[in-house]
Amino acid sequence: MAEERLQGCKVAVLATDGFEQVELEKPVEALRNAGADVEVVAPHGGEIQGFNHHDKGRKVPVDRELSQARPDQYDAIVLPGGVINPDELRLHPEAIEFVRSFVETDKPIAAICHGPWTLINASGVKGKRMTSWPSLQTDLRNAGAEWVDEQVVVDGGLVTSRKPDDLPAFCDKMIEEFAEGRHG
What we know:
By secondary structure, the protein is α/β, with parallel strands linked by helices. The chain has a single domain, classed as Rossmann fold (3-Layer(aba) Sandwich). The chain is about 30% helix and about 25% strand. A 7-stranded mixed beta sheet has the order 6-3-1-7-8-12-11, with helices on both faces. A 3-stranded mixed beta sheet has the order 2-4-5. Strands 9-10 form a two-stranded parallel ribbon. A hairpin with a 2-residue loop joins strand 4 (about 45-50) and strand 5. Helix 1 crosses helix 6 (about 165-180). The longest helix is centred in the C-terminal third of the chain and has 15 residues, at about 165-180. The protein is globular and about 35 Å long.
């Protein structure tokens, strides 16, 4: 059954203040509906502030502080966008190391919009075919990625999308890759 596809799969959603509301909430909802155990991981506890483009949105509770999270506790990771969120995460060496661990162990990664920025710092884009919000294309190309303007791109367990409008396709491919990644 579809709702049990990710039963027993534990997923980290790494974010901080400034995440794009729908790019965190929709993937979390889709993962939970597929049976995954999802934790919002952030550099600080309490709550993190969401945004709807340039306007403040709702706060989301943090399930686990980054200092208390170990990559080996998770089967996959999601990197939501929002301009502020990934830019802020890039300033936290422990966030970069956390993401790098998923890259180095070939665990599935899903990143949308500005989310791939964090992957650049974690050495996770070189040689990958991927997409993102258009303003990141030069950064991704300079880091060795092949950037394409497509709704959703999958390359070796890495799922990327451009924007909130791509969320249905992004969530479908994310669940598919996360399910396959557990058996690979």
